[in-house]
Amino acid sequence: MPLIEFSDCGLYCRAGDFYIDPWRPVERAVITHAHSDHAHWGSKSYLCHNDTKPLLRLRLGPGNYQSTGWNQTVYMNGVRVSLHPAGHIIGSSQIRVEHNGEVWVISGDYKLENDGLSGQFEPVKCQHFISECTFGLPIYHWKKQEDIFSNILQWVLRNKEAGKSSILFAYSLGKAQRLLPALSAVTDRILVHGAVYNVHMALVNAGIKLPEVHRVSADTPKEWLKNSVVIAPSSAEGSSWLKKFGPLSIGICSGWMQVRGNMRRRNADAGFALSDHADWEGLITAIKATQAEQVYVTHGFTAAFGRYLNEVGINAKEVRTEFGNDEEDAHPSLPEGEE
C-alpha cells in the first residue's frame, strides 16, 4: 500500500490517518493553501501554515485550526509531516510526508518566481511528487513580475490621462495582494471590492504588512470614484457595481491572458499574464529538482504534460482530482470560480 492513496475524499495517508486538501469533510485535514478548491468546510481539524490560518477562518468559519511554520516537523500517528514554501499565494505550502523511508511531496499549487509575499518556492527531494499542471503547455511562458507590473502601471497612467478609471480584475486571494505594492507607485488611493477587502483585512489583522486599501461602499466619496484605481474579482465583470466609476478601462490579470483571444472573449481593454501558477518551464524545473522517481500530474493539461514528461524520461501518471476550480484554474471558456 503506498503512503499516499488517491481516494474519493482526496489524498489520504492511511498510516497517519489524515487527508491532504480533502474535498469532502474528514477527521483530519492538512491544507496546502486557502483557495476554495483546496480548502473545504466541514473537517473536524485542520493543519496549515501560520499565514493560512486566518484565511481558513475567514473562508470556512469557526473550526479547529492548528498551524505551523515552514520546515517544522509535526508527527501524525508516527508519520512525519512538514510544510515547505510553494510560492503560490501567502501561506501556500507543499506538504512533505515521510514514513518508513518513503517520502511523498504534495505541491498543491506553486510558482517559482518569488513575488515578495508568498515565499520562495523550495524544491523538496522525494520519491513521489504530486504536481499541478494548470499551465502545462509550452505556450505558457511568463514575463518577469517587474516587467508585467511596469506594463500595468503604464496602462493606469494612460487611463488617468484619458480621464478613465482603471479596473483590474484579479483574484481576491493572491494577485490582489501582489498588485498593491506596484499600484502604490502611481496612486495614493487604491479602491477595492468587498471580497478583496475582506481578505485584505484578515491578512492585515494577522500581522501581514500590506499597503492601505479603501473598500468601495455607499459611503465612499463620489470624487474618489472618478479616475480611480480599483481591484475587483471577476464576479464584478458586467455588473452594475462598475457603473459608479464613470468612464473606465478594464484590465484582467490572469495567466490565461497569455493567449490574446481570451482577452477579446472577456471584452477587456487590456490583459496582463500575471499568474500565481508555474509556467511550462517552471513546472519542468520544479519537477526535475525533486529528483522524484514517480510524478503524478493533476488539474490542468495533464495528458499533454504527462506525455512530455514520459518522453523525456520522467515517469509520470495522470491523476484525477477535484482540484482546479479557483478563479485562475478555470479556463476562460468555462464557468468562473468563486467570487
UniProtKB/TrEMBL annotation:
Coiled coil: none
Domain of life from the UniProt record: Bacteria
Gene3D superfamilies reported for this sequence: Ribonuclease Z/Hydroxyacylglutathione hydrolase-like
Native organism: Flavisolibacter tropicus
GO molecular function terms noted in the UniProt entry: RNA endonuclease activity
InterPro entries reported for this sequence: MBL, RibonucZ/Hydroxyglut_hydro, Xnuc_lig_assoc
Lineage: Bacteria, Pseudomonadati, Bacteroidota, Chitinophagia, Chitinophagales
Protein name per the record: mRNA 3'-end processing factor
